[in-house]
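Tutorial handout. Part one gives the primary structure; part two gives the three-dimensional structure as tokens.
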Amino acid sequence: MSTPGVTIRMYKGLLGDCFLLRLFNDTAVDRTQPADFTILIDCGIIQGEGTGKDRMRRAAEDIKKACGGKLDLVVVTHEHYDHISGFGLARDIFLDDDNFKIERLWLAWTEDPEDEDARKLRRMFEHSQMAIAVGVERMAARAKDKEKDWYLQGEAMGLDSFVGPFGAPAKGRLTGRAIIEALKQKAGMDPNSYLEPGQVLPTTDDPDKPVLRAFVLGPPRNPERLFKALPTKAKPETYLAAREAEARTMARNFASLGNDGEFGNMPFSMRYQQVVDTELLDPTLTPPSDATPAQRNLWDMRKRYGPLEDSDNPSELAQRQIRDDWQGAIGSLAIKLDSDTNNSSLVLAFELEPDGPVMLFAADAQVGNWLSWHDQGYLVSEDQKIEASDILKRVVFYKIGHHGSHNATLRAAGLEQMTDERLVAMLPLDQRMANKRKWSFPHEEMYDRLRVLTGGRIIWGDRDPEPEVLVAHPNFKSALREPIGDDGSGLGPLWIEYDVN
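Part two.
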């Protein structure tokens, strides 16, 4: 079969990933016509974006129209809100509509319920999320008690931005785990749905459909790569167990006291089972004669280390209290969970033809994931195996990792190997939203180098291409397309697409 024509549609105005690949049997076909094969890679927007639901519903309706009510392949790279929330926010289109079909779903090996390493990883993530859920809830409550303290509120909002709501979701909303399970049920799963690093496979087995060859670069199975900061002599199973134990301990420490179930069994005597933000006994009163030992102990604690308003020497007491120190632990755990989840990203390189141009979708892969691509070979025929460097040097399209963050595009082992002069990049970023959260996206040094390698051919998710770049690269200009007319939403252009060939 001839080389397929490929057009990549990026949905705009999102701090999140949503890419529709439209494949045609002939490169010369009119790209405004319905495609012969469609691939959706992720669909999400960051938590807390006020217009997020409207934006995702616009995208979902357009996807349904563009694919004729049937997606041939859906790829979910990892369980982060800004990659999967669209499936939940527009569940009536993607999940509940029996007339909307998903023919096939690809997930990473980390989602395989039959894989023991995946189950260990899932338990670790779940225990971390449990701990953070309670921590975020308490931080929000403390902020309210402190007359809406801006710092605590900002911390509580920031922790769940990418991972999504840590606690119970709002009525009618789906958690990330529920979204993935619903997609599995919609598409139907088989052992080939869970992809392994080093695997090489076609996007379809249908000889009448345009086909790409996909190289599965990540996520790695090696824990040293998956988690990055692993001591060299540690055994993989020991490390996973240690991380799980750490998450379980944190969850236990921040779980509500007295609950039945796994975290109801605290390691201390009942007299010591109390938390700072629970109302204690009035220190100005003498404990009643029938006070329990626990009540007497709490009265004494309040008198010695109680609220500053009860003290004649507030500064001295402040130095002896740790009532807010736990927030640092919750923040560290959230960052660790965010990084680990990013590093479990499914990374795919699509080859347009044998030994030909490559499109790289790196999701949110970070250092360990990128490095792992070079740990294995990729079998392209019975007697030929190629290396990651052979793939990277042919990359003509790069979906910039993690909105352009500082550790999601490697230098020597990544970007510097993308030497094809046709290189074009897409940046799924809403800079206004990133600035609001005080996130430095894109990383300046990485972006400056990418501008050099692409000749400025970087397609943003929140703005038009630079006029001088379009003048300098007329072929690039002619390969770009946006919807004609205003849809009346007031949200700006819905998408921009690029003809790869």
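Part three, for discussion. The chain has 17 helices and 19 strands. The mean pLDDT is 81.
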